[in-house]
Amino acid sequence: MKALLALEDGTLLRGEAFGSKTTAFGEIVFNTNMTGYCEALTDPSYKGQILMMTYPLIGNYGVQPETSESDRIQPSAFVVRELCRFPYNVDSKMKVSQFIKSNDIPGISDVDTRMLTIKIRKHGTLKAAVSTDPDRNPDELVEEVISMPHPTETNLVSMVSCQKPRLHDGNNGKRIVLIDCGVKNNIINNCLRIGQVMQVPYDTTAEEILDFEPDGVLVSNGPGDPAHPEIMETTVETVRRLSEEIPLMGICLGHQILSLALGAETYKLKFGHRGGNQPVKNLTTGLAYITSQNHGFAVKPELPEDLEVAEINLNDGTVESIKHKSLPILSVQYHPEASPGPHDANHLFRQFEILMEASHA
Q1: Which of 17, 107, 216, 335 has a beta carbon 3.0–4.6 Å from 1's, enabling a disulfide?
Q2: Bridge partners for 52 per DSSP
Q3: Distance CA 82, CA 79 (A)
């Protein structure tokens, strides 16, 4: 069965359909990981986006649901160069095509992903659509993409955050409140090594969070624009009010939200950082390490007086971490839980634990 991929610049590609028979819209982005498509497909940070893998062969080890980062597929569509139709792995439960079909997600293969990646690197991410509906008119599909609003105009966080508090019991005495902006399961797993985790909706107030009597608050990863008006009115305001009360940690979108709460500004990157090979340099120690990243926005390096840039991306110099000159705050743009990806930054969860311990000393 044939499929269509339409871009807002008028590009129209034809390929092979897999997954669900439907049409989906979003912002097309690329991920450079060679493995980890199961984790990427279930990462809530991809909400509102069409995910394209740059590695040319996808699906060869099948799907292991236990590696999922959430309870469903998050991108609106999936784009690959070559789909492995007959995977083999002793732990595989299903094919990628079956996986996305079970979530009513369309996929397209046999398209030139290298050309598309070069286009995105040159022009930036683009609005797009994938259609596996044989009755779709190609020209009308392009027009729909051109006229559609950009996905980041929507409050995407509200679509992936939990609806009510959830308690996760840990093995230690610490109590962490996790503000869920689209958290990955492995962030929760790493926090559980520190202690008990109370996962709360993104719009939970500062007073409600303090009622849980936490030792620290972590603001999670998630999709969309951190400066969306609804996020500014809720999560950013909550974090601002908590910043002088309790130790804070921000990861990815959470880092951007925390930075906004402290007076910094954010902006949209041309094509973002999505993959497991992003080099980061610590400006204090001079050490560099490889990180896993998935974001389309960044913090501007011009910071308020009480903040300073702690780490930068060695590819493009963008801000990877900020530190406060007096408050117990840990904030990183990359993913220290790194699943999939390198574990160079996994120690940051221990640093967060040390911040909490110091606040009680």
Answers
A1: 17
A2: 30, 79
A3: 9
Domain boundaries, the chain: 2-153, 157-359
Average pLDDT over residues 148-173: 93
39-91 pLDDT per residue, tens: 999 999 999 999 999 999 999 999 999 999 999 999 999 999 999 999 989 99
Q: Up-side HSE of residue 98: CA atoms within 13 Å toward CB?
A: 11
Q: Would you say 76 and 50 are in contact if contact means Cβ atoms under 8 Å apart?
A: yes
Q: Which tokens belong to 56?
A: 């040319």
The CATH H-level superfamily of 157-359 is Class I glutamine amidotransferase (GATase) domain (3.40.50.880)
Q: Are 70 and 185 within 8 A, CB to CB?
A: yes
340 pLDDT tier (thresholds 50, 70, 90): confident
Phi, psi angle pair for 25, to nearest 5°: -120, 155
- DSSP conformational letter for 84: -
How many angstroms separate the most distant Cα atoms in the chain? 67
* Residues 2-153, CATH architecture: 3-Layer(bba) Sandwich (3.50)
- Across the chain, mean pLDDT equals 96
Give the DSSP letter of residue 67: G
Could you tell me the pTM of the whole model? 0.96
Residue spans of alpha helices (H) in 250-320: 253-261
Q: DSSP secondary-structure letter at 63?
A: B
Residues with catalytic roles: 252, 335, 337
8 A C-beta contact, residue 184 and residue 339: yes
